[in-house]
Design goal:
Blueprint: E1 4-9, H1 20-29, E2 32-36, H2 41-53, E3 57-61, H3 74-77, E4 86-95, H4 103-123, E5 128-133, H5 136-150, E6 156-158, H6 165-173, E7 177-180, H7 191-196, E8 202-204, H8 226-237, H9 241-255
Parallel strand pairs: 1-2, 2-3, 3-4, 4-5, 5-6, 6-7, 7-8
């Protein structure tokens, strides 16, 4: 059904208010599926509303470590988690790049929020979409600790992977997937990682409206540009584009089984 699948975008953001329906229509015409990501309570409800309206749109629900200033309460998302088009919990995780003056306290708060969402995902059998910036060691420590109790129930994807080869190997050992976006088209910083990671453990994303790939760099990003990300992954791995395209769609279905239903 899908020729491409953008596993991480933010279609509910106001950047798309004037042409959201037109854009999603184009995505449908080009057989592109998309997961629109919740970052707080409001955007999670908006993501689900979009997923209900459009066949090729799916949703995640969760609290971003910094974009959301809310406390996690299961009752706030308790009904959404059961929705047939909610494919994951997140975008959750740790963001230590832009800590404020009370950095130690903020780290503690983020870790607590992250752990609660991990438990929430495991309880309802959902994968995680994890945001991590300047905090890979802390995220890995938490995931390893939780993995002991949760086993295979703890699974998901590291969104917009930004670590080195050693970090990548540790996530793979935990059976997590790594996701890459448009940054691959204008820097070679992650080429070594992309070459190393098996195609079967890679997901493509745009993170639209952010970080548009070449040749659209500097413009507002779009899930339509997922083709450029897939093309670049194929080039880096030196694998036939059609094989990569098909493989990445299958990966999305493997991580997010509700896409198949």
């Amino acid at each position: 059904m899908y020729e491409y699948f953008d596993t991480h975008a933010h279609l509910q953001m106001e950047d798309y208010d004037e042409e959201r329906e037109e854009l999603i229509g184009k995505l449908q015409a080009e057989k592109i599926g998309v997961i629109t990501i919740g970052v707080d309570k409001k955007s999670s409800f908006e993501a689900v509303a979009l997923a209900e309206k459009y066949e090729n749109v799916f949703a995640t629900i969760g609290y971003h470590p910094q974009d959301s200033q809310e406390e996690f309460r299961e009752e706030d998302l308790g009904e959404l988690i059961k929705h047939p088009k909610v494919v994951a919990v997140g975008e959750c995780g740790l963001e230590f790049f832009r800590l404020g003056p009370n950095g130690k306290e903020e780290k503690k708060k983020q870790i607590d929020l992250f752990k609660k969402q991990i438990d929430f995902a495991v309880k309802y059998g959902k994968p995680l979409v994890i945001h991590c910036r300047d905090a890979h060691q802390e995220v890995l420590e938490i995931l390893k600790e939780k993995k002991v109790l949760a086993g295979k129930k703890l699974r998901g994807v590291i969104h917009f992977f930004s670590g080195d080869l050693d970090i990548a190997k540790q996530y793979l050992d935990l059976d997590f997937y790594l996701s890459f976006g448009g940054v691959l088209t204008f820097t070679s910083d992650y080429d070594e990682v992309v070459k190393f990671v098996p195609l079967e453990k890679i997901l493509p994303e745009t993170d639209a409206p952010f970080v548009a790939p070449i040749p659209y760099r500097g413009q507002r990003n779009s899930p339509l540009y997922i083709k450029e990300v897939v093309k670049r992954i194929a080039e880096i791995k030196q694998i036939d584009l059609e094989e990569v395209r098909k493989g990445l769609v299958q990966n999305a279905k493997a991580v997010f089984p509700l896409i198949n239903k």
